[in-house]
Specification:
6-stranded mixed sheet, binds S-adenosylmethionine, 8-stranded parallel sheet, alpha/beta, 262 residues, 14 strands
Length: 262
């Protein structure tokens, strides 16, 4: 039986008895039909990944008996995705895919032409947790509440570089722009900023271009939908600057996420 992989907020160490959430207990007992002793893998974004076994608590509850560490916590790229919210299915998709692509934080941004203003942050986080469990990440990206465009730029941290996806032709081809970055730029934390379906307003483009350490890029000759543009920019950044430059470790396919076969 392959192990079910779960994210927990609890500290992880050998011998720990970690209470699982009601939703996790329900999933393990009634969806996966797991019994006491079933293999689990736990991670919490701080202590790496640990092997554990399931113990049942009463009629509904469940806990995990933590045994040995299987992977130490590893640093992941300090990369933010700042994107204008889009309709429900597609924003869930952005959360899932951006988590798979290794972002450290998801920041919805309300721009002038943003149509969807209400964002269910809890649901986005649930999507990010599920994707992290499935893709064998050791952490779950931070999912932040939406922020106004002007606030995003006003609070942009010094030293964090900004990659703006500019569909107006004001950016250089992304591979070229990232290929020419110096060592310091490559080592810096980054944030990728993607506009709404309606595009950035002219004054927003001007404000972005005036930011310190901004790199304006083009993502090819076609106008991509916002969610596609977000993933295309993330993939290019990971390939050129991020952790895709490392060889892919052979991770046993013995894992099974908390939502069924990977
Ligand atoms: N309404 C805009 C237009 O028709 O010009 C298109 C906006 S596009 C659907 C949404 C966002 O994706 C843009 O603001 C930009 O950040 C990004 N994007 C889409 N295609 C792009 C491209 N070819 N190059 C750079 N960024 C792009």
């Amino acid at each position: 039986m392959s192990a079910t992989r779960l994210f927990t907020e609890a500290d992880l160490s050998a011998g720990a008895d970690t209470e699982l959430t009601e939703a996790q207990a329900h999933y393990l007992r009634h969806v996966m039909r797991r019994d006491a002793g079933a293999p689990l893998l736990l991670f919490n974004g701080r202590h790496g990944e640990w092997q554990a076994t399931l113990s049942l608590r009463g009629k509904k509850g469940a806990a995990a008996q933590v045994a040995a560490q299987t992977r130490p916590q590893a640093a992941e790229p300090d990369l933010w995705l700042c994107f204008a919210p889009v309709k429900r299915a597609r924003i869930d998709w952005i959360a899932e895919k951006a988590t798979e692509l290794g972002v450290a934080a998801l920041q919805p941004v309300i721009t002038r032409h943003t149509i969807v203003e209400r964002v269910n942050v809890e649901r986005l986080r649930a999507n990010a947790v599920e994707a992290a469990e499935q893709t064998e990440r050791l952490s779950v990206p931070e999912v932040r509440a939406p922020v106004e465009f002007a606030r995003l730029l006003a609070d942009w941290p010094a030293g964090r570089r900004l990659l703006m996806a500019d569909e107006t032709g004001g950016g250089r081809p992304i591979a070229e722009a990232l290929g020419e970055l110096d060592k310091a730029a490559r080592a810096a934390p980054w944030g990728i900023v993607i506009g709404p379906e309606g595009g950035f307003a002219a004054d927003e483009l001007t404000a972005l271009r005036r930011m310190k350490d901004v790199t304006a890029v083009g993502l090819g000759p076609r106008i991509l939908r916002a969610d596609t543009a977000a993933l295309a920019a993330l993939a290019c950044w990971q390939a050129s600057v991020g952790d895709w430059r490392q060889p892919t470790p052979r991770l046993s396919s013995d894992y099974r996420s908390s939502r069924g076969a990977v």
